[in-house]
Amino acid sequence: MTRLIFLLILTVSLPLSSAYAAAPSKTVVLDVPGMTCKFCPITIRKALKKVPGVISAKAEYKSKTATVTFDPSKTNVDALTKATTNAGYPSTLKKSK
Question: Does residue 13 fall inside a structural domain?
């Protein structure tokens, strides 16, 4: 009886666990030359995190860049640059990892 319950649980949980497999992500670095103070990265990071599919976003005042990791099946670089532009900080793709 215990074996039967275990097999049922295992059979039911296998398809569910594969649904939670990590989707491939992509990381890009954006040039954001319009950063003029140490508070600019906060606005840029918040704007990027609102884009559906963004996993993480980090903006750095010193280098005037933003590093964004995202799910490419949900968003793209154009959407990321549009988000920073709409927040008042136009950006361009610097590097794709």
Answer: no
Question: Could you tell me the residue range of the domain that residue 43 belongs to?
Answer: 22-96
Mean pLDDT score of the chain:
85
The span from the CA of 20 to the CA of 10, in Å, is 15
Q: Which two tokens stand for residue 35?
A: 């950063």
Q: Which has the closest alpha carbon to 77: 88, 63, 93, 66?
A: 93
Q: What pTM does this model have?
A: 0.76
Per-residue pLDDT tens for 54-77?
A: 999 999 999 999 999 999 999 999
Q: What is the DSSP string of 6-21?
A: HHHHHHHHHHHHHHTS
